[in-house]
Amino acid sequence: MSLARLGFVPVLGLLPLLGFGCSDPAPPTPRAAYSLNFVKPGASCNVGNHLEVLGEVSAARRLRMVADGDEGATVDCTVTGSGTFDVSATMALRSSTAATDVRIKIVDITPAATKEMPASGSIIFSSAKTSGTAFTSTSDEQCQFWFDADSEQGVDAGKIWVVFECPSVTDGQYTCEITRGALALDSCGS
Fold it and tell me: What is the pTM assigned to this prediction?
């Protein structure tokens, strides 16, 4: 064997290792927090008032976000755009004390959304208190999403912190409300 051939043997042996440094880093794990008040406005609703939460968030504070896979939570979300954003989130919580599903869709929300000029969107919600029955916002009275003035709430690519209300959510027979909800998402891909 010639010396020239021996020179290639160590280099060829290192080629598989060279590929390890070139891969993209793993995307960040999506995180979410929500707080929503499911309200029985009267006889038209068959479910009692109850509060559902994941993590700790309100209009004034965002204290604790829960990552996908932690504490029995599943979080899948996207917040895409620039100037105007589209938001899609599916969150589920399964624990010994909770079984909640929340799906939110907001199209065309801007950082300038206010209570007086909110962005419209939709929600599908079910919990142990609804016996797993899904309540959906109606196209006639969509959910309203906005940012409180003088707060740290806002939206940017991959993240949002917003408040919302749904004047009408229905299971097809009964109509209830969701009042003064808060939602925070981050590490949401595109």
Answer: 0.85
Please give the pLDDT value at position 42.
85
Extract the tokens encoding 50: 């109850």
3: left (phi over 0), alpha (psi -120 to 50) or beta: alpha
pLDDT at 6: 46
pLDDT tens figures, 96-148: 777 899 999 999 999 999 999 999 999 999 999 999 999 999 888 999 999 99
Q: Report, as an integer, the average pLDDT of 164-181.
A: 95
